[in-house]
């Protein structure tokens, strides 16, 4: 049985839960992280020295870092549809997974902490405006991509890349700010909402 360590209101844990839904993987989950068992406990740090969720234990194989977990699960349990072996197809998927982690995530961090988490440490108006502007710019990159991709971020079919990107899109619409008109992104959001895994772990009331 696959064990997932992490609270289900963490966006990175939700990536793993959604992937399990898409791949029909049975799992059990344990609550770790903010509001639950502390990830600084020695037993958790022994699994992940970064003391962050998620972590998985798949029959003794322990792995951390959410996007690495996605790739592992697709490789171990998938049939190649979500994460094909062909180098060019796989590279396109990896490109968008990495873009979400390195560019899109960084852009929305300050705005999300200020507007959704109401963090006292994120109250600077100039930094908030800069974060919203940067976030909007990267969402416009996604808009342009979706206008020409045929439906999903890596192409016409749903792939592993749509899991992290889709959760970021959910966060965009779930954050109270003035949203730029992005019709292709909005249509993509509705398209993802047809998937049970996204309804359960993405568009489920959590930003």
Automatic annotation (TrEMBL):
Keywords: Transferase
Stored PROSITE patterns: GST_CTER (PS50405), GST_NTER (PS50404)
Domain GST N-terminal: 1-81
Source species, domain of life: Bacteria
Entry's EC annotation: 2.5.1.18
Keyword presence, Ligase: no
Gene Ontology MF term list: glutathione transferase activity
GST C-terminal domain location: 86-207
Presence of keyword Mitochondrion: no
Family annotation (InterPro entries): Glutathione-S-Trfase_C-like (IPR010987), Glutathione-S-Trfase_C_sf (IPR036282), Glutathione_S-Trfase (IPR040079), Glutathione_S-Trfase_N (IPR004045), GST_C (IPR004046), Thioredoxin-like_sf (IPR036249)
UniProt protein name: Glutathione S-transferase
Organism from which the protein derives: Herbaspirillum huttiense subsp. lycopersici
């Amino acid at each position: 049985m696959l064990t997932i360590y992490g609270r289900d209101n963490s966006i990175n844990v939700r990536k793993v839960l959604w992937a399990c839904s898409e791949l029909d993987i049975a799992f059990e989950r344990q609550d770790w992280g903010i509001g639950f068992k502390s990830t600084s406990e020695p037993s958790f740090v022994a699994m992940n020295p970064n003391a962050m969720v998620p972590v998985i234990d798949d029959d003794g194989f322990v792995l951390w870092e959410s996007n690495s977990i996605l790739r592992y699960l697709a490789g171990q349990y998938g049939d190649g549809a979500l994460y094909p072996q062909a180098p060019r197809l796989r590279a396109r998927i990896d490109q968008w997974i990495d873009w979400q982690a390195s560019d899109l995530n960084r852009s929305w961090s300050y705005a999300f902490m200020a507007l959704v988490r109401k963090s006292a440490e994120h109250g600077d108006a100039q930094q908030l405006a800069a974060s919203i502007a940067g976030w909007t710019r990267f969402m416009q990159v996604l808009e342009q991509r979706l206008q020409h991709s045929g439906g999903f971020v890596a192409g016409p079919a749903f792939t592993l890349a749509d899991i992290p990107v889709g959760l970021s899109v959910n966060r965009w619409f779930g954050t109270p700010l003035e949203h730029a008109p992005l019709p292709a992104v909005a249509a993509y959001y509705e398209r993802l909402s047809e998937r049970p895994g996204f309804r359960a772990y993405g568009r489920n009331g959590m930003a």
